[in-house]
Please model this.
Amino acid sequence: MIYDIVIIGAGPAGLSAAVYGQRAGKKTLLIDVRGFGGQILNTPEVENYPGIKKVSGFEFASGLYEQASGQGAEIVYEKAVGIEAGNPMVVRTETGSYEARAVILATGAKNRPLGIPTEEKFAGAGVSYCATCDGAFFRGRTVAVIGGGNTALEDAEVLSGLAEKVYLVHRRDRFRGEQAGVKRLLTKDNVEFVLDSVPVEILGEMTVSGLKVRDVKTEAERILDVQGIFVAIGQMPDNVDFADVAELDETGYIAAGEDCLTKTPGLFTAGDCRTKKVRQLTTAAADGAVAALAAVDYINGL
Model:
């Protein structure tokens, strides 16, 4: 069977592309080893999507999935490992392959690690990259959140309702995230900002028992007595398997503009995996629509 459009990635960009592809009468397949939803699943509340006052990330992703599947889009839970250009194109997975007239890369991004000693050792034993997933395990305990963007602010707010104390560690003296989130945290008695500081070592035996941080201005070191560490320092792309068909920039993002076109005819990209200044839910959904309609035009022109 040859699909009209195969979409690699079932986050907001991929699901939005599936909706537009199906509405244009094209048979669409989504491929994602992690399931549907992407990073938005980890967001407790979405308050900046136009037209929706407030919704949980899970509810938003579920609604988008139901919309896409209800219109006929299919989804398989496999890992895509390569693409062969041609007519049709071939998407290879770890277990098989799929033919398509057009392909959309919507691989999103994954959590960026700290890159400090013992981080990998304590992953799952006190070090987490998802506060909404693991926060309940640290109820009544002391934790640290590392980061300065919206995700870090959101994680600290979620954890403030569970943990006894939350340290928010950031390498600068001000946060990149929205000031509304900062103001809410300032009202929390159990949240302490640790600014101008970077983590240098995770302490513990079998599980985390502390975090050593260094002041970037004074070089003074301090040990935070924590049992949990939540890393929220941004994301990184996972596009290396497609470097032969899509040009990557120096940081690994797919080189493509607002038209979502790649260097390979019939191959498009959408969402957080491509080069762009703003990576938000709204821009991911917009990319999905643009990429799908570009794919439809390409298929119609074959």
The chain has a mean pLDDT of 95. Residues 169 and 194 are 5 Å apart (CA to CA).
